[in-house]
Amino acid sequence: MVVTVPQDPTVWRTAAAAAQPTARVDPAAVDEVLPVRVDPIIALHDVLASAGPDAAEAGEHLRRAILDGAWRG
Which of 15, 33, 39, 61 is deepest in the core (most CB within 10 A)? Predict the structure, then answer.
């Protein structure tokens, strides 16, 4: 396993923002919602940078999920 720590501090702020609800909600209402585990933009970048033959198609699926608000990271 290789771990890469980004030097760009905005990566951590983006990930923290993605993990937080955008509005105040009753905590009981979100108990069943899993926290975000992957930054969607970084995931998209990694998929598009992969050498797989279906990377472009997979990237398009991820891009559409991000834009539609359907990302489940």
Answer: 39
Angle at alpha carbon of residue 16, lines to 41 and 4, rounded to 5°: 60
Read off the tokens for 58: 């997979």
**In the structure encoding, which two tokens stand for residue 59, read together?**
């990237």
- Whole-number Å distance between alpha carbons of 33 and 57: 28
Distance CA 14, CA 44 (A): 14
Could you read off the pLDDT tens digit of each residue along the chain, which spans 73 residues? 887 766 766 667 777 776 666 666 666 666 666 666 788 888 899 999 988 888 999 999 989 988 888 876 6
Residue 42 vs residues 14, 24, 29, 58, 62: alpha-carbon distances, Å: 10, 27, 28, 14, 11
- Domain chopping of the chain, boundaries: 35-68
